[in-house]
Automatic annotation (TrEMBL):
<dbReference type="InterPro" id="IPR038377">
    <property type="entry name" value="Na/Glc_symporter_sf"/>
</dbReference>
<dbReference type="InterPro" id="IPR011851">
    <property type="entry name" value="Na/Pro_symporter"/>
</dbReference>
<dbReference type="GO" id="GO:0005298">
    <property type="term" value="F:proline:sodium symporter activity"/>
</dbReference>
<feature type="transmembrane region" description="Helical">
    <location>
        <begin position="193"/>
        <end position="213"/>
    </location>
</feature>
<feature type="transmembrane region" description="Helical">
    <location>
        <begin position="286"/>
        <end position="311"/>
    </location>
</feature>
<dbReference type="InterPro" id="IPR001734">
    <property type="entry name" value="Na/solute_symporter"/>
</dbReference>
<feature type="transmembrane region" description="Helical">
    <location>
        <begin position="411"/>
        <end position="430"/>
    </location>
</feature>
<keyword id="KW-1133">Transmembrane helix</keyword>
<keyword id="KW-0997">Cell inner membrane</keyword>
<keyword id="KW-0739">Sodium transport</keyword>
<dbReference type="InterPro" id="IPR050277">
    <property type="entry name" value="Sodium:Solute_Symporter"/>
</dbReference>
<feature type="transmembrane region" description="Helical">
    <location>
        <begin position="165"/>
        <end position="186"/>
    </location>
</feature>
<feature type="transmembrane region" description="Helical">
    <location>
        <begin position="437"/>
        <end position="455"/>
    </location>
</feature>
<feature type="transmembrane region" description="Helical">
    <location>
        <begin position="6"/>
        <end position="27"/>
    </location>
</feature>
<keyword id="KW-1003">Cell membrane</keyword>
<dbReference type="GO" id="GO:0015193">
    <property type="term" value="F:L-proline transmembrane transporter activity"/>
</dbReference>
<keyword id="KW-0029">Amino-acid transport</keyword>
Length: 504
């Protein structure tokens, strides 16, 4: 698909220009650090929902998930189901409480600041270690987006991988640097609408091109019947271009796939949307909008992968390029440019949020908290902008090492889900969490993810599962042991109250 047509180039370029324009427009509303990090807590339900899930989806939605469906067939449904459940539960049981409590917690702008207030941590170790975890895992996460961007720019423009990744960095940094949280959120709305449009149009046209759904099913069965059998594992050999039955897709594989949903409770870039929504009363509408977007998009991505199995007589050498390949094959150049822009939207909508959260943690939780407590608001905003560039450069270096988009995302997703998810959930519902319980739980979750991954994921179990539950158990157990050091009633007065529950 290299050698992009003129119509596609025009539509692709128009999309990029629109993103930069939104960044410039939002520049006028970014005057304080609170504006830069949370947009002044003034997102409406539509913006919060689309921004949360566009920023969540990244390149895995249009590259990784279709690639998995292309290689493994319907077994990708297990991850979709787990993600959908996790999304619903996070909106239902976490969003309203976090919105209320972070504002009451001395108007905490970051998760790290919330931890410090919630547990009255005067040593600031919670704030420092949570910021370090954010820096480590988000740098990996951003690098996954840059790898996806490299695949896109390389496929579209025919440039080599390093140049393609550099283009990805430049595009994302420009409007995030200029407009901060509002620019990220408003561009995410455009990007989210573009992504769901692409994930409806491309698979339906591809199904029509293969002769309809009955021909699609027959064609997949001709390739390998287990592609359509839930519970029967299928493997794909890119060298020979063949699919083969790989045995039973057993309980561990199902649990590992569904466990992706646990990650939603601990992703700082998604939690920031909960914290930045205008009021808890906006959350039920946001949940409905978000769930609709997620279900349509993920099942569209599944259909892209399944359609690619039948459409291409010669199997693809890289399953994660199935969306790009289908777009080039079945779309006219003008619409094709829009579809390719949707892939870039998926990449940018996550990378921008992650750069902003990482910059926010370094600015608010390290620079202001430890180095310069008297810094002016203007100085803090510019420090935040400078750190966006620094983190992007580090992620760029890591991205040049390559790797699977879905694999890199999975590692970072587990890191945040296990380090922060259990702690945030428990701390919003139980007054008995202590500073030491929080610290041990958070660190054990992050360390367990890394250790499990380094051991080669024993039993084939996704590292999220053991790390998440270990973290939750230790938060509870260590808090019980150190209950003499409970935070004061002032810090925990709203924990477990019904105000936020009624709003959700």
């Amino acid at each position: 698909m290299s050698g992009m047509s003129f119509p596609a180039l025009i539509t692709f370029g128009a999309y990029l220009a629109l993103m930069v324009f939104i960044g410039i427009y939002c520049y006028r509303s970014t005057n304080t650090l609170g504006d830069f990090i949370l947009g002044g807590r003034r997102l409406n339900s539509t913006t919060a929902a689309l921004s949360a899930h566009a920023s969540d989806s990244s390149g895995w939605l249009l590259l990784g998930l279709p690639g998995w469906a292309y290689a493994a067939g319907l077994d990708a449904v297990w991850m979709i189901f787990g993600l959908a459940v996790g999304i619903y539960l996070s909106w239902k049981f976490l969003a309203a409480r976090l919105r209320v409590y972070t504002e009451q917690a001395n108007d905490a702008l970051t998760i790290s600041a919330f931890f410090e207030y919630r547990f009255e941590d005067r040593t600031r170790v919670l704030r420092i270690f949570s910021a370090i975890i954010i820096l480590i895992f988000y740098t990996l996460y951003v690098s996954s987006g840059l790898v996806a961007g490299g695949l896109l720019f390389g496929e579209v423009f025919g440039v080599e991988f390093t140049t393609a990744v550099a283009l990805s960095v430049a595009v994302v940094v420009v409007y995030t640097f200029i407009g901060g949280f509002l620019a990220v959120s408003y561009t995410d709305v455009v990007q989210g609408l573009l992504m769901v449009f692409a994930l409806v149009v491309v698979p339906l046209i591809a199904v029509f091109a293969v002769g309809g759904f009955s021909n699609l099913v027959e064609g997949i069965e001709a390739r390998e019947p287990t592609l359509l059998a839930l519970g029967s594992q299928t493997s794909f050999d890119a060298v020979s271009g063949t699919w083969s039955a790989g045995g039973t897709f057993g309980l561990i594989a199902i649990v590992s796939s569904m466990a992706w949903g646990l990650g939603y409770f601990g992703q700082p870039h998604i939690l920031a949307r909960f914290m930045g929504i205008r009021s808890p009363e906006q959350i039920p509408a946001a949940r409905r909008i978000g769930m609709t977007w997620v279900l349509v998009s993920m099942f569209g991505a599944l259909l892209v992968g399944l359609a690619g199995i039948v459409y291409f007589e010669t199997p693809l050498d890289d399953p994660e390029k199935v969306f790009l390949a289908l777009t080039g094959a079945v779309m006219n150049p003008w619409i094709g440019g829009i579809m390719l822009a949707a892939v870039l939207a998926a990449i940018m909508s996550t990378a921008d949020s992650q750069l902003l959260v990482t910059s926010s943690a370094l600015t608010e939780d390290i620079y202001r908290a430890l180095l310069n407590r008297n810094a002016s608001q203007n100085q803090l905003v510019w420090i935040g902008r400078a750190l966006i560039v620094v983190v992007a450069l580090i992620a760029f270096i890591l991205a040049l090492q390559g790797g699977s988009v879905l694999g890199l995302v999975g590692y970072a997703w587990a890191g945040f889900g296990a380090a922060f998810g259990p702690l945030i959930l428990i701390s919003l519902y139980w007054k008995g969490v202590t500073r030491n319980g929080a610290l041990v739980g958070m660190l054990s979750g992050a360390i367990a993810v890394v250790a499990w991954k380094q051991m080669g994921t024993p039993f084939g179990l996704y590292e999220m599962v053991p790390a998440f539950f270990l973290s939750g158990i230790l938060v509870f157990a260590v808090s019980k042991i150190t209950k003499a050091s409970l935070p004061s009633e002032q810090a925990i007065t709203h924990v477990g109250s019904s105000d936020a529950v009624r709003a959700s």
